[in-house]
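new request in #modeling-help
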Amino acid sequence: MLSEVAFWGLAALAVAGGVMVFRFDSMARATFALLTSLLCVGGEVLLLGLDYLGIVIVLMMTIEMAIMAVFMIMYMMNPAGLTPMTMMHNKQGATAICAAAFVLLAAGILSTPWPARRGKPPTDATMDLGMSLMGPQMLTMMTLGMALFATIVATVVLATRRGRYDRLGDSLRAPSTDDPIRGGVGR
Amino acid sequence: MNLELFLLLATALFCIGLFGALTQQSVVMLMMGLELMLGGVIVAAAAAWHYIAPAAAEGQVLVVLAVTAMALEMAIGFAVVTALFRSREIDMTDMAAELKE
Amino acid sequence: MQQRRRTTAADVALTRLGVVLLPVAALLAAAVVPLGFRSVSDLADGIVWFNAMEALAWAAVWLAGWGPNSTLALIGGYRFLAQGLAYELPHMLAITTAALGAESLRVGEVVDTQAGLWFAVWMPVAFAIYLLSAMAMAFWGPFDQPAGRDVAGGAAAELSGVDRIVFLGGRWLLLTVAAAFSVPLFLGGGNGPLLPPWLWTVLKTVAVLAFLVWIRRKVPTLRMDRYMEVAWVVLTPLAILQALVVALVVLVR
């Protein structure tokens, strides 16, 4: 009963938050509407018995959306939504595509004979996940690790303006780096 | 609660995200659409784990995969916007399309 | 009858949300902190829970800074995000180290494992990093730039009346909860001779809190761009090494 109420409450809030993301004029509000929606997703995951993953989603999304807000405000023309303007294209086409996609997927969901539940949830789902990631799914884990590392390198390369020649001179022999902000370890 | 309800919720989130990704002109707003779509994927994966095969950990691994995809998409997205903005002072998809000319 | 301060084109709803979220985040985080050996809820993933709730402060401080549509407040909000990026990585590794030592994410088991030897004794680096990040997450002492005097109170610059007391009270609460959580993580929780467990918890919490308050008078304010480099270049590798040592000990044990 309680979980039923929680499901519907979280689901309504998640969908409402998702809709409001694209309706708010203020970028800060849009970001935090998205955060609401994704926190509700974390709540639904908790409801399904995946405690660890649910809490991790909450943790990750909070931090991610806080950072996202900074970028939203940095790059949007109208961050606070004080002069309402619309930044959308192809609204009718997108509405048609999304409605069709929803109808198709919903029809698929309702007409598929889903298999019966096999097996019981483990007593400690977190342990199960860890054992799986460090055992049979090790390849997945290593791929994820490599992808994350590649992302770190790629984002730094894309986002930075200054390379090593700017910092260490044309022959890379400067005695100390020439940085606009000197950092905290005594450079 | 049953599998169908969770999957319908996932579909709703996915389609709202798709709408955002298709309509928004700003790259950052477009990424918010992608985040919502991945949120739908997370719900679907978690529901599949719970209602179909809770004994196997693959469903959980799928959630981890979706969460990582979210983080990667965000990081790369912001880096690309920063690079675009730095070189062209643009942040809109329509303007970025002119790059190919 | 006095009114709360108003600013032009403020986003009042977001300001209020940020102001209220700070104490709420601290209270939610406190749910897994045991008094003696009992907590409100000893979750199976208590340590992750604490981390997730304490991260809500990121959203709270930024919202409180953004809402009033005031430059100095917004600078404070941005400063806290920069500080968050600096402290969060070593902080996560430090609390993970404690979980690793107990081979459990449950706070109760972390306390039980320390019946003999406190984690602070054989994980001193993780403990020190935790204390640093406890101050940083409550933007307290040397990390008070998000609410610093140079920006007229930063994120709290435009807050007045009940908003101000709730926000600054929430900050105190966060500092207290962070100090209290160091007790089950590193200082043996309620374990101790003679006195009852709850009294030990309170005494240890007060000691940690007193240390944090004392250090505020001794250490000048750190700029977060400096702390960022220290955190990523020095503290993160140190925390990883500490986790490695603990992992080896756990394997051999």
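bot summary: Chain C has a mean pLDDT of 90.
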